[in-house]
Amino acid sequence: MIQGLSKISKSPQRLAEEILQISQFHPYYAQQLAAMVWQFIQNDRDKSDAVEQAAQFIITQHDNDYERLWLSFNQTDKKVLLALAQMEPKPFSDVFLKKRNIGAVSTVFSSIKRLTEESYLFKQNGLYEIEDPFFKKWLIFRRHRFIFPASS
Fold first, then answer.
1. pLDDT digits (tens, 9 = 90+) for 15-67
2. Single residue among 61, 78, 108 that ends a domain in this structure
3. Which domain holds residue 79?
4. What whole-number distance in Å separates Cα of residue 106 and Cα of residue 12?
5. Which of 1, 86, 98, 129 has fewest C-beta within 10 Å?
6. What's the predicted TM-score (pTM) here?
7. Which CATH number characterizes residue 89's domain?
């Protein structure tokens, strides 16, 4: 990736690191984001923020898909997904349950189990993560304000 980005940027290492961070080191998403970054830089967009611009563009392209997906989840799944998108690391803790108004630990466990079985989540180093990093960003930017008001 660095070699390819060096053809269009004076800081390919930084771009590659940003791409890998946003894509969560997932090869498919990293490739998708790198291709979009390449296009953005080739089209003389603001190169200093090309990775974030490209990620936002991808999210915008998939907005309807993510909206349909979102509508398919029940309320508990939505709360769990939003909490995980916001990097709340302990979904079975009392603090998590009270803050998100979810209910019992068994409810969260069932939701996480279902979302993992359906490949929306994966477990890595003892933590649950959202599989699609762009869906995760979409959740933060498009859904957070509708489910959890600013006071939460």
1. 999 999 999 999 999 999 999 999 999 887 667 789 999 999 999 999 999 99
2. 61
3. 66-147
4. 46
5. 98
6. 0.83
7. 1.10.10
